[in-house]
Amino acid sequence: MTMAKRDTYTPDSLLAVAVEVFIERGYDGTSMEHLSQAAGISKSSIYHHVRSKEELLRRAISRALDGLFGVLAEPGALQGRAIERLEHVTRRVAEVLMDELPYVTLLLRVRGNTDTERWAMERRREFDHKVSDLLKQAAAEGDLRDDVDIRLATRLLFGMINSIVEWYRPGRGGAVSRDEVAEAVVRTAFSGLRRP
Amino acid sequence: MTMAKRDTYTPDSLLAVAVEVFIERGYDGTSMEHLSQAAGISKSSIYHHVRSKEELLRRAISRALDGLFGVLAEPGALQGRAIERLEHVTRRVAEVLMDELPYVTLLLRVRGNTDTERWAMERRREFDHKVSDLLKQAAAEGDLRDDVDIRLATRLLFGMINSIVEWYRPGRGGAVSRDEVAEAVVRTAFSGLRRP
């Protein structure tokens, strides 16, 4: 039995607590009871904010997806040669991932047992396809190496970007900064680690 | 109640079944009962092969680690300029990951609640450090770009390699081959996706 505290949560602050619990226990392994304990408020207080656990998941995933799809609407993603747009998107996706770390982490871990999870996976695939299309355009414009398959290149690029969630923790003393990480991803992915 | 079949398992074939269950349910979420059901033999038959669930984990992790550390002992990892050794190690680690896919997947997912898991994480860190040392040597020999931090480069390199477990499935029709994947990883990581 947890001492219930006064419910001073906003939709955003309650979501932040829920996302931490989803990441720690897995979405399937999380009950409303777990959320109530983590938030320190009663289940009925939580139901005052949201109708269900799945609504919390949908909101969290939406936040991640809005950030990611937002990148594709930026001027840097729309103007110029495809390779420049691709580098812009890569840098910005890495930044969004770090800025919205728990939300993107959750998006990447979703596996698809509920409607919301299947929708999340579908939207994620859609995003990957848009980036893959950019790679295709860059290849068509002659700016991409032609000895790496486009689908494979897309996967390796996202593999590198997405792996940031495994170790990046904002504000950790002595660690590399967000901008340094984003810059390193762009340099490594497009120009490689070997000195030219 | 599962119909028990005759126990014709070898240590390796029983391990293969256990690893699939560990990956699917998580190591913590797997009981001897789950293993018994998946293998189709009784729990006492399993205890005839191994003393505990943890012994199965240790064997599986050892198999992954033996493969990975084995790469560091290959001539290609020991002779020549550091950048060449690094490229050899990168290619071979990607290959070992694909050849020993379930075992390496399990190694990468281990989080550290038991002695075996902590040992696995320690050995993995040790491996990462050895690769990081190779990067340092390559930098000292002037073959690595100097505008990406070595620790960050190590993380991005492993991020790219390890992400292969998320989508690579051997023998899947129409998919890229193991050799193509390993080659693409080396090209992307060291020379980048941009046409030189």
TrEMBL record, chains A, B:
Residue ranges of every copy of the HTH tetR-type domain listed in the record: 8-68
Ribosomal protein found in the keyword field: no
Record GO terms (molecular function): DNA-binding transcription factor activity; transcription cis-regulatory region binding
Stored SUPFAM superfamilies: Homeodomain-like (SSF46689), Tetracyclin repressor-like, C-terminal domain (SSF48498)
Matching Gene3D superfamilies: Homeodomain-like, Tetracycline Repressor, domain 2
Swiss-Prot/TrEMBL keywords: DNA-binding, Transcription, Transcription regulation
Identification of the protein by name: TetR family transcriptional regulator
Entries under Pfam families matching the protein: TetR_C_24 (PF17932), TetR_N (PF00440)
Residue ranges: DNA binding: 31-50
Database matches in PANTHER family: HTH-TYPE TRANSCRIPTIONAL REGULATOR BETI, HTH-TYPE TRANSCRIPTIONAL REGULATOR RUTR
InterPro entries recorded: Homeodomain-like_sf, HTH-type_TetR-like_transc_reg, HTH_TetR, KstR2_TetR_C, Tet_transcr_reg_TetR-rel_C_sf
